[in-house]
Design a protein that fits this description.
Radius of gyration: 18 Å
CATH architecture of the largest domain: 2-Layer Sandwich
Strand content: 15-25%
Number of domains: 2
Largest sheet: 5 strands, antiparallel
Oligomer: single chain
Shape: globular
Helix content: 40-55%
Number of helices: 10
CATH superfamily of the largest domain: GAF domain
Order of helices and strands: HHEEHHEHEEHHHHHEE
CATH class of the largest domain: Alpha Beta
Number of strands: 7
């Protein structure tokens, strides 16, 4: 199938969802077209707040958050290496790939994971992520569809973001990414408390979450609620507000 025909077919599927298509609906179409159990879209651009902006279900949301917490996984590889990342059998995949991510992702129900960079020209925005609850490869048609869907998702993100302030997400993108904002809010508080950069504060939050075996969103929520304070040593817990 020619790329133009493929794009028209996919656009018709998106149009069938109605004029007010949300990011979640776009993710649902991505999962449906590729025969996957779920899908998510993660932003990793230096110019935008980073994190998941849309998922199809609880498992895909958890997989997105695991990657954001651990700072590894198919999303990060697809973004940094600017290529498709295909793992049709996560349990038996090549080692030593994603040592921290693999176990929790399998426990969550992901047996196969795939990621495709979101790119417009030379600008990389993040990745489109797919998972399946059983080991399986993508067919050539599914792979080709996923590439076009990633391209369409990237253009959708730019379109939605066009009129938003440079350092904030558009409302339609923000609706699906609540944990993203609480993490950045917590990082801001940690940065101010410890007099470190936002990047260093996020690293400390991730290290604490990993060491405590807790989702980053939970740790960040506790920090924002002043139920937890990240101490001067990396990962230390200080109960004082």
């Amino acid at each position: 199938m020619a790329n133009s025909e493929r794009r028209l077919r996919l656009l018709s599927l998106l149009a069938a969802r109605g004029p007010d298509l949300q990011i979640k609906g776009l993710c649902e179409v991505c999962a449906e077209v590729t025969g996957m159990s779920g899908a998510g879209i993660m932003l990793l651009s230096r110019d935008l707040p980073q994190g998941s902006v849309g998922t199809t279900n609880e498992v895909s949301a958890l997989i997105e958050e695991l990657q954001y917490t651990l700072h590894e996984g198919p999303s990060f590889d697809a973004y940094h290496e600017d290529r498709s990342v295909l793992e049709p059998d996560l349990a038996q995949g090549r080692a030593p790939r994603w040592l921290a991510f693999r176990g929790p992702a399998l426990e969550a129900g992901a047996q196969a994971v795939f990621a495709f960079p979101l790119r417009v020209g030379e600008v990389r925005l993040g990745s489109l992520n797919l998972y399946c609850d059983r080991p399986r490869p993508l067919t050539e048609e599914q792979h080709a569809d996923a590439l076009v869907l990633a391209d369409m998702a990237a253009q959708t993100v730019l379109l939605l973001q066009a009129h938003a302030p440079p350092d904030r997400l558009a409302a339609q993108l923000a609706e699906g990414g609540e944990f993203l904002f609480v993490a950045h809010q917590a990082a801001g508080m940690v940065a101010a408390q410890l007099d470190v950069s936002i990047t260093e504060a996020l690293i400390r939050l991730r290290a604490y979450a990993f060491g405590a075996d807790r989702p980053l969103s939970e740790v960040a929520t506790d920090v924002v609620a002043r139920n937890l304070r990240i101490g001067d040593r990396n990962g230390d817990e200080d109960p004082r507000p």
